[in-house]
Amino acid sequence: MKFCYADPPYIGCAHMYPEKTEVNHEELIDHLVTEYPDGWALSCHTPSLQYLLSCCPDDVRIMAWVKPFAAFKPNVNPAYAWEPVIVRGGRKRTREQDTVRDWVSANITMQRGMIGAKPDAFCYWLFSVLGMEQGDEFVDLFPGSGAVTDCWERWQRRLF
Ligand SMILES: C[S@@+](CC[C@H](N)C(=O)[O-])C[C@H]1O[C@@H](n2cnc3c(N)ncnc32)[C@H](O)[C@@H]1O
User: Model pTM?
Assistant: First the structure.
């Protein structure tokens, strides 16, 4: 099976990356739906969730990355301490398999040289959510630091 993870700059945050160009999320979601019928996931932030869902088919699920340690900003209270992950498809799980939660709790990464680099625990959870198995094709559409792809290599070899 073929799966994709899209971790673009969140809407309104393109200035944080060298490309300085907003990603067209409507086109991105169309691409995910068309090219990855087996399953895909899209990271985003809560301010964009309403808009993004309006671009998604009805059968997506909303999962949560909860961040016990998150960046607190002055005058932002309550803090944004979780991020939605929109998920579609995935390998069907059998009754024998463990039940995966629709959330993961993991601290943000620090000093990785890339804003938004995803922590290992997040990546491993995401692979479970999608029911990914060794040998599946995995496309990391916005690789950034390469953390997610690195985890996928380790996860396939059970080296984590
Ligand atoms: C949130 S980061 C990805 C983080 C990655 N998942 C990780 O764990 O390191 C988004 C990435 O998309 C790149 N990017 C920013 N704007 C882009 C654009 N318009 N088109 C393609 N890539 C872009 C950024 O440079 C950055 O590498």
Answer: 0.97
